[in-house]
Write a structure and sequence with these properties.
The complex is a heterodimer of chains A (153) and B (216).
Chain A lengths: L14 H17 L4 H12 L3 H17 L6 H14 L3 H14 L4 H16 L5 H5 L1 H17 L1
Chain B lengths: L10 E8 L6 H10 L12 E10 L2 E10 L6 H5 L7 E7 L3 H5 L1 H11 L5 E7 L11 H10 L3 E4 L8 H17 L12 E3 L23
Parallel strand pairs in B: 1-3, 1-4, 4-5, 5-6
Antiparallel strand pairs in B: 1-7, 2-3
The chains are: A mainly alpha (153), B alpha/beta (216).
Bound molecules: guanosine-5'-triphosphate (GTP) and magnesium ion (MG).
The site of magnesium ion (MG) has 4 residues of chain B, from helix 1.
Pfam family, one (chain A): Fis1_TPR_N
GO cellular component, one term (chain A): peroxisomal membrane
Keywords (chain A): Apoptosis, Membrane, Mitochondrion, Mitochondrion outer membrane, Peroxisome, Transmembrane, Transmembrane helix
Chain lengths: 153, 216
């Protein structure tokens, strides 16, 4: 049944779709090293599933980002890391990731929309203000940028 | 992506927009929802959402539109959005023949992954660039007819025919509901009558192992 949820923070992946992505990933794991694409697709599915799955998805994406800092898919990893963290209400990190993306693509409307959505969630949870002033996000952005630019040179 | 009053419509129709990267899917969506053209638009990451309330036969209908990324590497990800689409806008770029040549494969995916009632609409985008045209209107029209698709050339830049493509698709879906060929009780029709909008109080974002009935 389709639900009236129409944003990337509220949507839920169809369980069958998640299983399909998991199968592809696990088949590749059994054969050896899974491709970046299989890892990313599976992680993306996990990010849109339940809380435990989101944690696993985040772990996979963080590993992809660490190991493939210069990959053209870097923006995909960063975007979905923002989504994943927002979904488990780790808003500091969610903002840090989306700011990182906006730093590289300052006019990216999809990224701006996500940032707005995260801020709206924070307001709903009574969190906006504290987190931003807390400085946690700023620190995380700094180290992320360092990581990415180090990878580029 | 601002929604107006949530209960202000009779149906939700779900659409997907598919086609090669760079053909203008996101620009079409933006033109339709914001009436603006984005000259400099980065590749979509995964999927983007847009909504707009329209009117068909004096009924308000909320279109819930999923704009998918055309880049090859998102194919596994975007496939999950086909199911439960009432309408599929399949887009090519009239100035790039390769995007037209790939339509057969997009159409196969659309047919295999949606339901038989899904209305598939073919859009030849960038009609403002007639001087650089690489696919004739007649050729695409013939392809559309062979495959039972409705076809329009549009421009996300000037807005030409953009409304018509989205609205015509909705009219066809509505007609399928009216004449009974689309069974509202069937699964994954991509159509949801207003009466069935429950649990607006349950924040799906809370993502704690509860029942997964939100698979939009
Ligand atoms: N002249 C002209 N340019 C257009 C039109 N529609 C889109 N463009 C341009 O084409 C480019 C790609 O448009 P997008 O909407 O990002 O393409 P897309 O299909 O969403 O691409 P992906 O997200 O990668 O799948 C952008 O630079 C747009 O400005 C149009 O109707 N006319
Ligand atoms: Mg796009």
């Amino acid at each position: 049944m389709m639900m009236d949820c129409d944003n990337v923070l509220d949507e839920r992946i169809d369980p069958y779709e998640l299983e399909r992505l998991r199968d592809q990933y696990e088949t590749q794991v059994r054969r050896g090293q899974p491709s970046h694409l299989a890892k990313f697709s599976f992680a993306h599915g996990l990010i849109k599933s339940t809380k435990n799955d989101v944690h696993q998805g985040i772990a996979i994406l963080e590993q992809l980002l660490r190991e493939n800092g210069q990959d053209i898919s870097m923006r995909d990893y960063i975007y979905y890391l923002a989504v994943g963290h927002a979904r488990i209400k780790d808003y500091d990190r969610a903002l840090a990731y989306i700011e990182t993306l906006l730093h590289a693509e300052s006019t990216n409307r999809q990224a701006m929309n996500l940032k707005e959505l995260i801020e709206k969630k924070m307001r709903n949870d009574g969190l906006l203000g504290a987190a931003i002033l807390g400085g946690g996000a700023a620190i995380a952005v700094g180290s992320l940028l360092a990581l990415i630019f180090a990878g580029r040179k | 992506m601002s929604n107006s009053a949530p209960y202000n419509y009779s149906y939700i129709f779900k659409y997907i927009i598919i086609g090669d990267m760079g053909v203008g899917k996101s620009c079409l969506l933006h033109q339709f929802t914001e009436k603006k053209f984005m000259a400099d638009c980065p590749h979509t990451i995964g999927v983007e959402f847009g909504t707009r309330i329209i009117e068909v036969a004096n009924q308000k209908i909320k279109l819930q539109i999923w704009d998918t990324a055309g880049q090859e590497r998102f194919r596994a990800v975007t496939r999950s959005y086909y199911r439960g689409a009432a309408g599929a806008l399949m887009v090519y770029d009239i100035t790039r023949r390769s995007t037209y040549n790939h339509l057969a494969s997009w159409l196969t995916d659309a047919r295999n992954l949606t339901n038989p009632n899904t209305v598939i609409f073919l859009i030849g985008n960038k009609s403002d660039l007639d001087a650089q045209r690489d696919v004739t209107y007649e050729e695409a029209k013939a392809f559309a007819e062979e495959n039972g698709l409705t076809f329009l050339e549009c421009s996300a830049k000037t807005g030409e025919n953009v409304e018509d493509a989205f609205l015509e698709t909705a009219r066809k879906i509505y007609q399928n509901i009216q004449d009974g060929s689309l069974d509202l009780n069937a699964a994954d029709t991509g159509v949801q009558p207003k009466q069935q909008l429950p649990r607006s109080t349950l924040a799906p974002g809370s993502a704690n192992g509860e029942k997964k009935d939100c698979n939009c």
